[in-house]
Amino acid sequence: MNLVIVHHHLNRGGVTQVILNHLRALHEAGATEAFDRIVVLYGGRKTGWPEASEPALEDVQLEVVPSIDYDSVVPAGSPDPYTATSESLQRLDLTPDETILHVHNHTLGKNVAWPKALAHLANDGYRMLLQLHDFAEDFRPDNYRRQVEFYAEKGSGMAGVYFQAPHVHYAVLNSRDRELLHHAGLDEAKLAWLPNPVDPFPALPHRSDVRKKLADTFGVKSNECYVLYPVRGIRRKNVGEMLLWSALTPGPATFAITLAPVNPVELKPYEKWKALAEELKLPCKFNVGGEGGLTYLENLAAADAIINTSVAEGFGLVFLEAWLSENLLIGRDLPEISADFKEAGLRLDSLSAAMWIPKRCPIDGRMVFSESNYRTRMRELFSQVLVDFGQEEPDLEDFEQKLDERLAEDWIDFALLTVEAQTEVIRQVASDPELAAAIVQENAHVMRPLTEENVNFDATIQINSQIVLTKFGLKGTGQRLRERYELLKKLNPGPVSSFNGANKILRQLVDIKRFQPVRLENG
Asked: What is the DSSP-derived secondary structure letter of residue 280?
């Protein structure tokens, strides 16, 4: 049996890292012996692929198929993805009866003809594991609309993207996604739970050396608490909340985000947060892992804590990796993402699902942000989201009722605010110590690691790191992969059909109750 792993590219990013760790996991579990050949098909870009050889990758063959890359970079005149992929598989003698295709993120809309090509390959008899890391329906309207328009000519829409067959299974990263697809009508037996594997970090650099480099490069003093946000500062990472933490935290502490966005659309709001931090003289550093900064491992070694303020994740690797860097993870919990980790025994008591902000200042009763402006902007944004997804505009009475529910209490989660409202809050907190103190008190539990002295979390870090390695390490992932591949190998190919529950996926994800405007606003 042959294994073919397929993705648009192998550039730096989450999916490329998952592919690498899957190969390492198969090697760790001794599962590579079950395959005659392992081939990785990709579009041609591979800045994230290791240059140095390692045992898990020695026998892996890389094969370029330009037509399967993002359609924005596919060379003009290239054959369609089905023809190009089919010809490559035939040339490599990877026949349907002897080959399993493990395909990553085919529904995201980066190459609209790609799902159609895969459906044809399934019709040819290729057994498939289609792994979903992200959903176009999860507030990515451009990706979604492009696919709907492409498949509208065939009358299938997203139903054709989520094609079905007896020999085609889907893999998801967490219980939330599994329940979402099952609720939409996907057969539970065809759904594999495949959490991303975690590979231990190599030995971190010596702390005193990297703290000196941090001081020399960014002016962070050795006695300052260095709180690291190890992400690229795109909108869903909720960068404004990191600024809020920096304005709230007493004592010497610096908050730092590792990388700036590359996408111009994402860069604009990032630069606005950076400018606000500079204007208010907040203890924030930006792009500390970029050119001229510290490496990723150096930043981890220099950190006193890792922070998360993200409002949405496909998997949430930070909930696992932070502990392996021997740092405490603080900030925002994402319960629908972290539920699997807690079920495995992980202690996430240092996180909170919300950062509570008063609508009115508890001291003098003044408005902390404009509620009327917030309501107006929310109506504009969510109406536009529905239009972008091709849905009817919301019933105004129902929408106002849901907004009333969101604003019913005296306090509201900072992540639910618009960018304008978040900016108002940060400005007031930065200029009003009494307001800041009231917010710290309301969020005392999650802020405790930075507001109380002599709080020791060493036991939590040690326990969590052991759980991560035991339950989310490479070997366990390799065993899960092998079991699913063996199951697929036994299946007889059958007819390919559209998935009539595709619209239920959209309705579950595009809902005012899940809507955080910071994910879509341009600053």
From this structure: T
| Start-end of H helices in 164-262 | 175-184, 207-218, 239-248
Instruction: Round to whole Å and give the CA distance between 176 and 431.
Output: 40
Residues 6+ away with beta carbon under 8 Å from 10? 16, 19, 40, 42, 45, 46, 47, 48, 49, 62
Alpha carbon distance 177, 386 (integer Å): 22
pLDDT band at 414; cut points 50, 70, 90: very high
Which range has the worst mean pLDDT, 58-67, 137-146, 324-333, 348-357?
137-146
The DSSP code sequence of 310-363 is -S--SS-THHHHHHHTT-EEEEE--HHHHHHHHHTT---TTEES--EEESB-TT
pLDDT in tens, 206-262: 999 999 999 999 999 999 999 999 999 999 999 999 999 999 998 899 999 999 998
Q: What is the DSSP letter of 200?
A: P
Helix residue ranges, H only, 360-413 = 371-388, 396-406
Q: Is the pLDDT of residue 154 over 80?
A: no
Contact indicator for 192, 128 with CB cutoff of 8 Å? no
* Predicted structure pTM score: 0.90
Q: Give the CA distances from residue 140 to residues 10, 43, 59, in Å, rounded to whole numbers and listed in that order.
A: 22, 23, 37
Read off the tokens for 388. 């972008």
Least confident of 124-128, 266-270, 503-507: 503-507
108 within 8 A of 314, measured Cβ to Cβ: no
What are the CB-based long-range contacts (under 8 Å, 24+) for 399-403?
Answer: 399/512, 402/512, 402/513, 403/375, 403/378, 403/512
| CA 319 – CA 306 distance, rounded (Å) | 10
Q: Hey, is 4 helix, strand or coil?
A: strand
